[in-house]
Amino acid sequence: MTRRAFISGCEGLALSQAEERFFAETRPWGLILFARNIEDPDQVRKLVAGFRSAMDDPNAPVLIDQEGGRVQRLRPPLWREYPPAATIGRIHARDGQAGRRAAWLMSRLHAADLSALGITINCLPVLDVLATDAHQALGDRAYGDDVEAVAELGRAAAEGLVAGGVLPVIKHMPGLGRALVDSHHHLPVVEVDRNTLSATDFTPFRALAHLPLGMTTHVVYSQIDAGHPATTSKKVVDEIIRGEIGFDGLLMSDDISMNALAGSVGERAQAFFAAGGDVVLHCNGEMDEMMQIAGAAPPLSGRAADRAETALALIAGPQPGDIGALGDEFDRLTAKAA
Fold it and tell me: Which domain holds residue 285?
C-alpha cells in the first residue's frame, strides 16, 4: 500500500488504539521517537514493533535524534552518556585523526544502541558551521566553526552509523550555524550574502551531498529569499539544496510544529511540499495536528518515492565489531578532551 509523505511522532510509551488506527489508515513513511517515548529497552522494542504492526510492514522506518550532549533520547542509566559534538570537534582540533576516529566511534556506538531497539534512522550528523554569535540552541551541538573540520567529522559520523546498520540524516540544510534565535520559538533571519554562505555554511553539505537523507532548517536567508524560511522556500530548495549543494536524496523538513513557522501545521506542510520537499516531519504526537499533517501530505510517489526506496535499500546489517572494545577506545579518546 502506498505511503504518505510524512513522518509522525506518537504521544507516549505505547501506541493508543487511536494511534494504531491513525497509522494503519494514514500510512506515514515513518515514526520518530522522543524522550517521552523512552522508558527501557523492552518497552522501546515493543513500541517499535507496535508501529510496524499497525503499518503491516516489518521494515517501516523508525527515526530518532541521538546526537549526544543535550540531544539524546536514550540516556543513562540504561544507555551510555555521550558527549556533544563540540567535544569531538576539540579532539579534532588537537589531532585530526583522533577526532575523525572519535566521530566514527560515537556513531558506531549509537548505531549499536539503536539497532538493538529496531530503530533504523538517526538524525545525525549536524553539519552546521557555528558562528561566534550564534544562539545557544545550537551551541555545542555543532562540531565547531572550521568548515573543513565539520565536513570531515560529519563524514566520519555518517560512516559510523552506516557501519552499524543505521541511516544518517544530514542537517540542518543549508545551514543553521548563524541563527541568532532558537527556531523552536522564533524565526531566525540570516543577513549574510550568498557568496559568504556558499564558501562556509553550504560547504559541509556539498561534501556529503551523496548521502540519502537530509533535513531542512527553518531559517530565512534574506539575501536569497527574504520572504520564506528554507523549509518553505522553493528558491532555497531548487537553487541551493538541489542546485548548488547538489543534494538529490530524500529531503525532509525539520519539525513542522516548531514556532518559527507561521500558519497551521497543515498550511506549513502544504508550503513545504510546494517548495519541493519530499517528506514532512511532525514530532509532537498531538493527534489533532497529526490529522492535519496526514491531510496535507500527498502519497509518496515519483522522485520522492524513488529517493525513499533508494535510502532504505542502503540499510544493511551491522559490520562485525567488538562493541565493548570500541566503547573502551571511545572513552580513552574522549577522556583527553574532558
Answer: 4-335
